[in-house]
Amino acid sequence: MRRLSILLALLLGAAALSAQAAQAPAPAQGRPAVRSNQSATLTPVPLVPLVDLRVRNPQTGREVAFSMQVLLLLTAISLAPSLLILLTSFLRVSIVLDFVKRALSLQQVPPNQVLMGISLFLTVFIMWPTFQTMYADSIKPMSDGTIGVEEAYRAAERPLRLFMYKQLQANPENIRLFMSMRGLPKPATLADVPTYVLVPSFILNELTVAFKIGILLYIPFIIIDMVVASILMSMGMIMLPPVMISMPFKLVLFVLVDGWGLLTQQLVRSFL
């Protein structure tokens, strides 16, 4: 009986599986599978433009000249920050402003970026007549095609040389120094001074003038520091830093005398 019951159970299970297989729908033959909406909708591929840089031999002399002009232009652009710093009033203005910050015992106010921005715009203000002359005599004619690159360079160099020489008129010792080191004869006019002699002479002169202005700015603030330090020593406050007491007094003095206005006015007048 036990074997008979097991056999009947197996037969009933097989019958149930055959019935489920008969009820399942058979896939239609010859009919393609239906794609989903996501796969049916194709995303367009963005087209990236092709950048083709070719190096070939120049066909004419004009192409060689154009390549040299592009090379000189890229060289001038890479040297533009150094030229702006060393051949303009930027050097003197930036050094004087840094001296003021140190004389006031200020560490983070104003930030160096602010000082450099002030120096830049003061330089533009001071050098604007020179820049206008350079544009009118050099850049504009070259863009119009009336002069070449060499003539444009000479025309742009002339007003800048006049500006540098004007700052050296009161003290031409630096020009004599560099002329003697190169073994050149004494110049009779400005045209006799080469540019490679005028530029380092101008840089040394600007450093000297900026340091002189910085020393004069330091004197009143040093006096305040000495007075405050003496008072603190007499009161026995040895552990108290004098800078903490003297800095507010220096700021009050600087604001009361309109320090920024006087400093800017004297800096601009020093170049006129």
Secondary-structure topology with pairs:
Elements: H1 2-23, H2 37-40, H3 61-86, H4 90-103, H5 112-144, H6 149-168, H7 173-182, H8 195-234, H9 242-256, H10 259-269
Task: Give the tags.
10 helices; mainly alpha; 272 residues; elongated
Written overview of the protein:
The chain is elongated and about 85 Å long. 72% of the residues lie in helices and 0% in strands. Residues 19-40 have low confidence and may be disordered. Helix 6 (149-168) crosses helix 8. It is built from ten helices and no strands. With 272 residues, the protein is mainly α.
Q: Total number of β-strand segments?
A: 0
Tell me the major beta sheet: none
**SS class:** mainly alpha
Average pLDDT confidence is 78
Q: What is the N-to-C succession of helices and strands?
A: HHHHHHHHHH
Anisotropy-based shape: elongated
Q: Quote the beta fraction.
A: under 5%
Q: How big is the Rg?
A: 41 Å
Q: Tell me the distance between the termini.
A: 128 Å
Give start-end ranges of low-pLDDT stretches.
19-40
Number of helices: 10
Helix content percent band: over 70%
